[in-house]
Amino acid sequence: MSSTRAVLEATDVWAGYGGPPVLAGVDLTLRPGDAVGLLGRSGVGKSTLVEILGGGMRPAQGQVTLDGIPVGKTPMRRRKEVKARLRTVHQNGLAGIDVQRTVEQTVQDAFTEARKAGRTTSNDVEAALAVVGMPIRFVTRRVGTLSGGERQRVAIARALAARPDLLLLDEPLTAVDPAMREEIAGDIRDLVRADGIGLLVASHDVRLLDRLTSHVLVLAEGAIVESGPLRDVLRDPQHPETRALAEAVPEAFGARPTR
Ligand SMILES: Nc1ncnc2c1ncn2[C@@H]1O[C@H](COP(=O)(O)OP(=O)(O)OP(=O)(O)O)[C@@H](O)[C@H]1O
Description:
single chain, ABC-type glutathione transport system ATPase component, Rossmann fold, four-stranded antiparallel sheet, 9 helices, alpha/beta, globular, binds adenosine-5'-triphosphate
């Protein structure tokens, strides 16, 4: 429903934690309607990149912009707008969520903000929870009493209720069992497709990326070393790190057996 559709652009992003750089010149563009996976082995810098893209961490060098507005050092008067258009769901699913509020209040708050901003007319908490496979009986539960997997799902429902232009998910649904994870991923995919929300999903779970995204970027040695449709990338990996990832996934994803 938003009038302008945001484009997120990262240019020559460098970052680290005092040692060798974790990110060393990452370029990336995310548009509404995109469904992009960020694939890479554990510790390669996926969360760091998601944090920087969402404005939670500043790069040592380079910049991230949302339709030209700097993300991370956003001018005060544009912060609300950036927050409405660009949402991040962190790995633990709790950042920014008041654990004392109920599930219903948490999702309702997001709808209220989105309605005020003219981003949605919906107020359907039950439908929002259904997308992440949560029955209506959870509405009265305080977020602080939920299991890890339930919190992750509420965090996603809340982010989707906000109807952002772009949604960044860092290792979503890790605490949810595999069968349910696939089903929820399919429902999330349907919703973001229907609403034209741009999605970036950081994960090393290729099954999840296969469900949620249409295109992957492989992060290795601080940079995006490969990109393309997931199954193509795994079938014909070019970079040694992609080859290692491909060898570890089931053949169903098109990876060639190790010779
Ligand atoms: N606060 C921190 N202080 C020092 N080092 C950090 C900090 N946060 C992350 N790192 C290091 O930076 C590197 C990248 O971490 P990051 O969490 O971005 O990787 P990741 O690809 O998301 O990993 P995973 O898949 O295991 O979540 C790792 O070597 C990690 O140990």
